[in-house]
Amino acid sequence: MDLFPLGWQHYLAGGMLLGAGVGLLYAATGLIGGMSTVFTTVWSYFSSFPYFREERFVASRQWRLVYAAGLVLGAAAWMLTIGEPFQTHVPAWQLAVGGFIAGFGARLSNGCTAGHGICGMASLQGPSMLAVAIFLATAIATANLARLFA
Amino acid sequence: MKPAALAWVLLCGALFGFGLSVSTMVKPEVVLAFLTLHDMGLLLVLGGAVVVTFIAYRLAPRLLAKPLAGPAFLQHPSQMGARTLGGAALFGIGWGLSGVCPGPAIAGLGVGNYPILIALAGMVAGAYVQGRFFGR
User: Fold this and answer.
1) Structural domain boundaries, residue A43
2) Are residues A20 and A77 in the same domain?
3) How many separate domains does chain A show?
4) Is B41 in Cβ contact with A122 (below 8 Å)?
5) Distance in angstroms (rounded) separating the CA atoms of residues B87 and B89
6) In this structure, are A77 and A132 located in the same domain?
7) pTM as predicted
């Protein structure tokens, strides 16, 4: 069985590059570069509900939006230089339902593949490591089930 | 936050987005190929990212009295509990169904992956329901 049918170099190089982004963010600003919190902090601009107005969200909403904008720009830079445009063919209902559950779950867990997966594991935090083991397990189970019924 | 710090944030976000694109994690199909155990690439992406970040998290506070453009090195301890672990289980279900997690959902816009807007809208809505009804 071939573990990497499409090659392995781009996976490792890409992972190290994005790790360099998270690492440099810490060296330059001292910030922990998780990603899912931005989905909560954007609501602080529109909602007066007390949870969304909490200090931790209001205080970080600006840099989190800038960080997200950087993600889009970096991906665009890749597309315009060595890459090419790409559109997914995953069915819309899977994107919608999966996106909703992933967004809800990541915010309940206070972390996603970036926050728990990269930042939490890189700082050797037990709860994050357990969270990663759990979401890998449920994701693998769900993806295989979805494939079975597709 | 000072403009210099925000410029760093933008640059680091761009590195993150560029790396996500190089690694092809912006393609949900590639993520789903890992989750259905056809291509182990995602483990190299995660492993490479964790090792580089680990080194930076260890070295930066030793080499620098404070961040280049910030007041202090922050910490963000994760909490052990039902919310962290139950939320992770749910997150995995959504990730396994769509092949999309927050970073690639956002970066996907930069490679013209416009169908990803559906997943992004789902995530923003999921975050609202979490905060509005299950926040604390």
Assistant:
1) 12-86
2) yes
3) 2
4) no
5) 5
6) no
7) 0.97
